[in-house]
Specification:
The structure is a single chain. The chain has 573 residues and is an alpha/beta fold. The protein has 23 helices and 21 strands. The strands form four sheets. Strands 13-14-16-17-18-19-20-21 form an eight-stranded mixed barrel, surrounded by four helices. A five-stranded parallel β-sheet has the order 2-1-3-4-5, with helices on both faces. Strands 7-8-6-11-12 form a five-stranded mixed β-sheet, sandwiched between helices. It starts with a strand and ends with a helix. Bound molecules: ligand C2E and magnesium ion (2 copies). The site of ligand C2E has 25 residues, from strand 14, helix 14, strand 16 and strand 18. One magnesium ion (MG) binds next to strand 18.
């Protein structure tokens, strides 16, 4: 029920109003002067005020000004009741903040209509005000949620990358001198997801976060930077030695297994670190340096760490330039294949070729793969380029098969990134269908280290390739620490002895023994063995002595373009 306050020095006027509005279901209150009215506002809680203009002591205009100046009551509509409806008088009322006026003597119908419409407007106003309040609360709540999302990692509840950068920026510009960053990246975390599933992977991340938190000192920040990446922002580091000893402790912490969902998981991290020196321009640079150092640590192997060194800047720059160049090269079709003959050593006859990638750089002539494949591996560019090599090689094989060279085997190298690519099998099927080659004459070479990094995946893939009759060769064998357990389960056809063993083979030295062992292993597992990098006839003799069946190397031929292969090897005379 709406509450209406009537302020009038003459109680008779109130009686009139009371009579007129009596049937309308309002709650009416009366005040005989402005002072008591204002004092009792809290008691009456009016939804509308009818205010007489002419009153002794405080006039209606003054009362109106008072009420409109009170934040909690200023929204209550005030209808001025006046006997003197001159223009000047009304202008005064509105200037004081009044919402409407009504003339004496009062007309019943007019009063009812004015009161009703003013109350309706007031109600609508209140609804809007409540709605605004709710909206404001909602916005506040959402902002808080967003804040949490942006500044906190949902899985580990650690601060996020954004938080760390903010904090770093703050400290940096407040002139803090001895900051350090330690960037950590788990080694081969993908294998955990691959072998145990993502749920276990997530739990391991949480367990790692908890273990890392033990190395936090007051004022330091530990943030989760990405999937399996963390970063410490260390507040007070007085010397590189102090930083190194902290890193050392952190890495030591990973010597104990993690027990997650009843699995014992061994996990290591690589660390890259840097600390403030005055040459720093931007806080982001510091993060970039730690990241670069981490990348260098990765190159050295699991569980390594590296402090940032200034010359690494140049390396980053060169890498960026190379990345750019390679993107362009792919677009401009600057990659071509050379072919190196593979020979049956006993009969000195040709059995096939290995396709090897070359980059026809517009200014640098032919660039060998050693200079660009590592970069393509890190950027993932090897996936499209590798696919292009495979397509080109199969087209070439198809041409040679159509010319009647049905027995030649063509070997194509496959990178780790490629065999982790979900569309690989579909791509291969597509190429086989397009080129209509006999798949039994295609051999894919996967390096031993790539297989061991991802053994389960390699076994699955090898089975799929086998079912398509494609052959598989383990490349650079002897360098990747194969485990025999895996070798037994991996359906491969041949082993390629790494060039490093062949080039330094001498009777009865260590390499001779290694080559002998690999050849023996091949025989036991019923695999063909191919020796890479045969350069001298002496090496050839030793390999023959050891009963190595196949070989390739500069002694027979360097890798050469397809046209030269055709002129030198594919003539029928
Ligand atoms: P790889 O598969 O082990 O290839 C053998 C490498 O040894 C080739 O180097 C070849 O030119 C070289 N070689 C052969 N005989 C001799 C020799 O008698 N003496 C010496 N010093 N070297 C010899 P290349 O062509 O520079 O390729 C290097 C590596 O790049 C390859 O090693 C392979 O891992 C990778 N690669 C080449 N082409 C491709 C490709 O199309 N895709 C992928 N993913 N990797 C490729
Ligand atoms: Mg190879
Ligand atoms: Mg090799």
């Amino acid at each position: 029920m709406s509450s209406i306050l009537v302020i009038d020095d003459d109680p008779d006027n109130f009686d009139v109003i009371d009579t007129f509005l009596g049937q309308q279901g309002y709650h009416l209150h009366y005040a005989s002067n402005g002072r008591t009215a204002i004092d009792d506002l809290d008691k009456f809680k009016p939804d509308l005020i009818l205010l007489d203009v002419m009153m002794p002591e405080m006039t209606g205009i003054e009362v109106c000004q008072w009420i409109k100046a009170m934040p909690e009551w200023q929204a209550v509509p005030i209808i001025m009741v006046t006997a003197l409806a001159t223009k000047k008088n009304l202008a005064e009322c509105f200037a004081a903040g009044a919402d409407d006026f009504i003339c004496k003597p009062l007309d019943r119908l007019e009063l009812i209509a004015r009161v009703r419409s003013m109350l309706r407007i007031h109600r609508q106003y209140e609804q809007i005000a409540t709605f605004n309040l709710q909206l404001e609360a909602m916005v506040e709540q959402r902002t808080a949620q967003l804040h949490t999302m942006v500044f906190q990692d949902a899985l580990t509840n650690l601060p996020s990358r954004t938080f760390l950068l903010d904090k770093l920026t703050d400290l940096f510009y407040s002139g803090h001198q001895s900051l350090a960053l330690i960037y950590l990246d788990c080694d081969q975390f993908k294998m955990v997801n691959g072998s145990f599933g993502y749920a276990v992977g997530d739990q391991l991340i949480i367990a790692i976060a908890q273990r890392l938190e033990q190395y936090l000192s007051p004022g330091d920040v530990l943030a989760r930077m990405g999937e399996d990446e963390f970063c410490f922002l260390v507040n007070h580091i007085d010397s590189p030695t102090q930083l190194e000893s902290l890193i050392h402790n952190i890495l030591q912490g990973f010597q104990a297994n993690f027990t997650v969902a009843d699995c014992e998981i061994f996990m290591t991290v690589c660390a890259g670190a840097t600390y403030t020196r005055d040459r720093h321009q931007q806080p982001e640079e510091l993060l970039q340096e730690a990241d670069t150092a981490m990348y260098q640590a990765k190159l050295r192997g699991k569980g390594s760490y590296q402090l940032f060194q200034h010359q690494m800047h140049l390396e980053i720059l060169n890498r960026l330039i190379l990345e750019n160049d390679l993107q362009r090269a792919l677009k401009h079709e600057e990659f071509i294949l050379y072919y190196q003959p593979i020979i049956h050593l006993g009969t000195q006859t040709l059995v096939g070729f290995e396709a090897l990638l070359r980059w026809q750089h517009p200014e640098r002539n032919l660039v060998p793969p050693g200079e660009f494949i590592p970069c393509m591996e890190t950027t993932g560019l090897i996936v499209p380029v590798g696919l292009m090599s495979l397509t080109q090689a199969c087209q070439q094989l198809s041409t040679w098969q159509q010319q009647g060279w049905m027995d030649l085997t063509l070997s194509v190298n496959l990178s780790t990134r490629q065999f982790a690519c979900p569309s690989l099998l579909a791509d291969i099927d597509h190429i086989l269908a397009e080129t209509a080659i006999n798949p039994a004459q295609l051999k894919l070479e996967i390096t031993e280290s790539a297989i061991m990094d991802n053994a389960e995946m390699a076994i699955d893939l090898a089975k799929e390739l086998r079912s398509r009759q494609i052959q598989i060769s383990i490349d650079d064998f002897g360098t990747g620490y194969s485990s025999l357990a895996y070798l037994h389960r991996l359906p491969v056809d041949s082993l390629k002895i790494d060039r490093s063993f062949v080039s330094q083979i001498q009777t009865d030295n260590r390499n001779y023994q290694i080559v002998k062992t690999i050849i023996g292993l091949g025989r036991q597992l019923n695999l063909a063995v191919i020796a890479e990098g045969i350069e001298t006839s002496q090496q050839l003799e030793w390999l023959k002595e050891l009963d190595c069946e196949f070989g390739q190397g500069y002694l027979f031929s360097r890798p050469i373009p397809a046209t030269e292969i055709e002129q030198l090897y594919l003539t029928r005379s």
